[in-house]
Amino acid sequence: MTDRELVQGIIDSDQAAFKELVEKHQLFVIRTCYALVHNSEDAQDLAQEVFIEILKSAAAFRGTAKLSSWIYRIAVNKSLNHLKKCKRRNTFSLFSFQVPGGNMPGEQTANQNTYTDGDVGMEEKELKQALHTAIDSLPVKQKIAFTLHNYEDLPYKEIAEVMNVSLSSVESLIHRAKLNLQKRLSYYYHSNRK
Amino acid sequence: MEQKDQDRVQKTLDFIQKDRIIPEDPWFYSRLVQRIENEAEKTHKPGLAGAVALRLKPILAVIVVMIGIAGGIALGKVISTPASSNEPLTSVFPIEEDANAAFFREINDSIYEQILLMK
Is the pTM value of this prediction over 0.90? Predict the structure, then answer.
């Protein structure tokens, strides 16, 4: 089935079409959510929400952009909303580490769920923590552009479509994100060495 | 920046290739469908008639119990009412009465009693 047929099938309540769409896109949706929230359980929940949103608003898909771009956009929005909610929850909580579900961006705890926690050594855990902290410290637009490019291998053109910005803006965002990450990581390692 | 720090920064950025690996989840679709069904059940609210019926349930239960009790009492009355209810209660024990009557008849008839009465 083509993307257009899949969407039409969902509009017509065709369960087989919905199943095909989920199976075709679930991996990249989960990965996008995970790249932004850094928590495997939250990423799974968010991915489910993404597909529920697709089910609800399939009729709103105009077909001018690629279906995958539309799905990426929903996944990014859901993940950003989730991070905002976590931030708000933590702001209102006296003890932020007691808040159930989700951590502050950049806030790493011992029980954080990630996909590779089970069988990694200390060094990999440190690398992951440093990486996630650095990515979370980026401005939102840089973070989105960087994760879509580096975690999803999306070309600049599709990132521009997802983010609804120009191609040159995407290039600039990714370039600045890389510089910022290098700066922040070197500061992180420099200060940890002292 | 020292060479060692530079290497670690590069190593951290290279770690993205490992961090982006997501395991396949064969049950994702099943769990998604389950969640959609659960949410549909939650959002399905009863209408006005349903809400009224829900409120009236305990009242209906009390009424049914009271009807049952009243029916039981009425049925009990019908079953336990004796056929000769107008007769005095003593007639319920005819054997005892007969025994007493026989006793006094016997005394009156005895010879000792006759002698004593004559005196």
Answer: no
